[in-house]
Design a protein that fits this description.
Blueprint (H helix, E strand, L loop, with lengths): L2 E5 L7 H6 L8 E4 L3 E6 L2 E5 L6 E3 H10 L2 E11 L11 H6 L2 E8 L3 E6 L2 H13 L3 E6 L13
Antiparallel strand pairs: 1-8, 1-9, 2-5, 2-6, 3-4, 3-6, 6-7, 7-8
């Protein structure tokens, strides 16, 4: 098992928080890659959720994704034990050889792909996705992984 993939509803909400509820977010430092997400202000798209932020502690990430509703278009989040070991992760092989522990990619507001070095985290995320009734929940394996890069866009 490499990870899990599923589809979420294309709507305003706190989807990153909902997805990451089963993950020990605060244990890691997070790299924020290229993405597009907006805070909902007065019922419409407002400021950029991440703005110019390129890294956050786990606690900072939890605070950011739990406080306000937002609209996700693209997201690229990577978790590391510490930022000093941060390398550019572009392929699954890069991920395996790095200190990166967790990758969450969201594309086109709905398609979520998650890679984790922890099999128990993958299983928890899979079970949560099924319980939440996300669509097309699947484990990502060596045989079915079609991604060529671990970058949202």
């Amino acid at each position: 098992m490499r990870g899990v993939s599923f589809e979420i509803l294309n709507k305003y909400g706190k989807q990153l928080f909902d997805i990451l509820i089963e993950v020990e977010v605060s244990c890691w430092d997070w790299q924020i890659g290229g993405g597009e997400a907006y805070v909902i202000e007065n019922g419409t798209l407002g400021k950029d959720l991440f703005g110019t932020i390129t890294s956050l502690t786990g606690r900072e990430l939890i605070k950011l994704i739990s406080e306000n509703e937002y609209y996700l278009i693209f997201a690229d989040l990577k978790a590391y034990k510490n930022f000093e070991s941060e390398l550019k992760i572009e392929t699954y092989e890069d991920f395996l050889e790095s200190d990166c522990q967790f990758v969450l990619l969201l594309v086109d507001s709905s398609f979520v792909t998650i890679y984790s070095k922890s099999k128990s985290t993958i299983q928890s995320l899979y079970n949560q996705a099924v319980a939440t009734k996300y669509k097309k929940v699947e484990y990502i394996t060596d045989d079915n992984d079609e991604r060529t890069t671990l970058i949202a866009f």
